[in-house]
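Replying to the earlier thread about multi-chain prediction with a worked example.

Input:
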Amino acid sequence: MAVACGDDEETGPGPSDMTESGGSSGSAGAGGEPTVAAGAGGTVEVAGGAGGEPAVGEAGSGGGGEVLEPLAARGKYLVDHVIACSDCHTPRNEMGAPIAEMYMAGVECFVELPTGECLHSRNLTNDETGLKNRSDDEIKTMIRDGIRPSATGDEALHPIMPYYVFANTKDEDLDAIVAYLRTIPAVEHALPRSDEFFAVEAPANPIDPDTIPMPGEDYPEFESAVRGRYLATQSGLCIECHTPHEQAATVLDPDKYFQGGEEFDLGLPAIPVSKNLTSDAATGLGEWSVEEIVAAMKNAVDKNGDGLCPPMPAGPMAAYGGLTDDDALDIAHYLKSLPAIENEVADMCTWPPM
Ligand code: HEC
Ligand code: HEC
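Result:
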């Protein structure tokens, strides 16, 4: 399967179909189309606005009502709103809503193959079954390098955990993320080892930052677009979901950044497919205003006022609803600055507007 580093990338028995119980990018690395069983979608049944991706951070709030010191507060904002770590690390109930008391405690069978083999996400809380006994440096090595230090030999993490994006997160932001993780209340939740199918020999290659498009110098809001580039591609995950995943050590092909087409089988009546966010007029966001792009993030509506489907973590109940106005605007300017790539993505999914 994917990312087994080295010569042949297709060694595994590529599954024809997988089940993912969480929000985000299922297909990274493993073959075939992931299916989400009890996840974001599963039992949501497209009930008007109820489903989607409620902002786990608010509900479970590691920092709860308590006041966080500035570094941890920055970390909370990144974790809950820019990145949405909790969409993959918080278990959900039968209705598809995140379980507040289990905030960041890890999802059993986050990805499930038809054969029943599972990839579990991990418990990130301050419990012995979570990250309590890990040093700050060990946690950073897992988030950024995709390496899990172990007494019996380091292990590579499966690239469904998007460390190949976080490799380009600034050190100060990684420090902030770790500072925040340290404030998350302990939840005892021991997860089994993931099945052998998901073992990878080496971590996926980090995204080479030189391949990430820079806004043209003539882009009118150049500085804003440069800030947005960092949020959309080096700390946040827009690039990850909006680029089709390769079954190879380099998960995202630089020639396809932001062209859309990644499928997310959440068990909904239709399979959501990520859209082309490049500035192509006919097939991308060329005709969208920055305000319309901001509205997509904050209100989960498209240019025509139709609702956006999960797993796009948009809208007031989900991660991006809590983006600051400045950050949302910066991201929108970055997308408007992207070179056009023509790639028609069929609109497979409709969702009631929030
Ligand atoms: C798209 C889903 C997804 C997102 C988003 C995600 N993770 Fe993960 N994460 C996973 C999965 C799945 C694993 C387990 C990988 C494995 O065991 O090979 C994992 C593993 C980890 C681990 C290893 C823990 C251990 O003890 O082994 C850490 C640390 C981690 N994630 C932190 C984070 C942080 C912090 C964020 C946000 C900045 C984040 N993750 C975002 C899916 C995700
Ligand atoms: C977890 C995966 C995921 C992440 C992360 C994600 N998206 Fe999406 N996005 C999607 C999917 C899937 C759709 C299609 C939804 C639908 O069909 O209704 C979508 C739709 C959109 C649309 C609507 C485009 C159209 O033509 O209708 C915009 C705009 C958008 N995303 C912007 C962003 C931005 C900006 C970010 C980062 C801040 C981002 N997305 C992060 C999965 C994701």
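The chain has one domain: 17-190+198-337.

Feel free to reuse this layout for your own posts.
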